[in-house]
Amino acid sequence: MNLAGHDAHYLAAVWGIASALGIVALVCLALLFRRARKTAEIEEIERILAEHDLQEGGNRRDSHVSRRHGVD
Amino acid sequence: MEASIGLSELMTVTCGGERPATRARETMFAVLALASGLVLAAVWGLAAGSSSLELALADLYKVPMVVLLSAVTALPAGLVTLRLTNAKLRGAELAGAFATSIFGGTLVLATLAPLVAIYYHTSAKAGVPLALGSVFVALATASLLFARAVSRRIAGQPRAASLLAVVILVALFLAALLQFVALASPIIGVHGTALETGFDGLHL
């Protein structure tokens, strides 16, 4: 293999560096996915709470403590 | 709607179905599409390198890496074009459409992988041309899917600027792909192909 007059050893080193950058890109994608999933979960919870509030017709929603123990 | 995403949902979005409702889910879709595309590219790599165990194992890693590096090289140019032309399309939308089109293209590659493998082992004439042909079919499919996805996202708005970004992104992806294939060669067969000499090997 001979690209632009460089020998195989040089090109192997370039491929190694490129691969390392690719692995970094993969890690960044994994982090991006994790962050997006957390955001999506929060949005989903907010949506469910908003729907619940709507169903209650504006009534005050009890806290989880009052629902469990009957006090507020 | 759940926070998790299934492959069928990914297929629906790739085929032009209903898009994710929120930006976070759109990001999840884009990352999942790209990751799935890399797995599918690895399947094709296994078939294309099946002439020897060593090459097959190397292609399992090389082909997805070539696709990923080409995408990473091309994406900034597309995003800069969007900004410079004041296109209506958002950068995240362009990246999302690009990721789903890569998924579509690599899906074609993986679908053709068994055919590539069987011809590679049974035909001296058609083995390598078929492997190369499958790459060109996949590239054409991905380009069409990309253009269609972007067109749908900007329906009813000026299209020229956004489609210019698509053209530049595809052109840079192909240019980068050519050189990364050369750098990672051999990929198809032990002796490589004409494409594996990079841009210098093209008779223009």
Low-confidence stretches of chain A: none
Classification by helices and strands of chain A: mainly alpha
The gross shape of chain B turns out to be globular
Q: Give the radius of gyration of chain A.
A: 27 Å
Count of DSSP-assigned helices of chain B: 6
Total strand segments of chain A:
0
Mean pLDDT of chain A: 82
Oligomer kind: heterodimer
User: Can you give the helix content of chain B as a percent range?
Assistant: over 70%
Work out the radius of gyration of chain B.
17 Å
What is the N-to-C order of secondary-structure elements of chain A (H for helix, E for strand)? Answer: HH
Q: What kind of sheet is the major sheet of chain B?
A: none
Mean pLDDT of chain B: 87
Share of residues in strands of chain A: under 5%
SSE order of chain B: HHHHHH
Number of domains of chain A: 1
What does this structure look like?
- The complex is a heterodimer of chains A (72) and B (204).
- Chain A has one domain (8-69).
- Chain A contains 2 helices and no strands.
- Chain A has helices at 8-55, 64-69.
- The longest helix of chain B is centred in the middle third of the chain and has 32 residues, at 53-84.
- In chain B, helix 2 packs antiparallel against helix 3 and helix 4 (91-122) packs antiparallel against helix 5.
- Chain B has helices at 7-14, 23-48, 53-84, 91-122, 127-153, 160-184.
- Classes of the chains: A mainly alpha (72), B mainly alpha (204).
- Chains A and B meet through helix 1 of A and helix 2, helix 3 and helix 6 of B.
